[in-house]
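[audit] Reproducing an earlier prediction to check determinism. Same input, same settings, fresh worker. If the tokens differ from the archived copy the diff job will pick it up downstream; this log only records the rerun itself.
[audit] input (95 residues):
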Amino acid sequence: MLKTTLCAATAAFLVMADTAKADSYILVSCYRGPWNEVIWDKANPNFVQSLIDAGYNTTEATSIADYICRDPRLVDNPIALAKEVRAAVRAAPRG
């Protein structure tokens, strides 16, 4: 399931992920800035927190979120973004 919400200078996506908690959702929220290029892109705190709530420790959650938000292939591409988040969650062991 993918729900999308776009806000000024922020991209936010709610992704249902296969996590330790069957009903977990990960809020993918990245600060994008006004550029098409990846310049100041970074994970918003609610993205990191949703990964922590899904079972990752702070270091793992920050690493995953930063990787997702800094990937230029995912800018303005919500389908690829959701797929990449799901792949990262499946591949990364939890805390």
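[audit] rerun output stored. Observation attached for the diff report: The longest strand covers residues 10-16.
[audit] end
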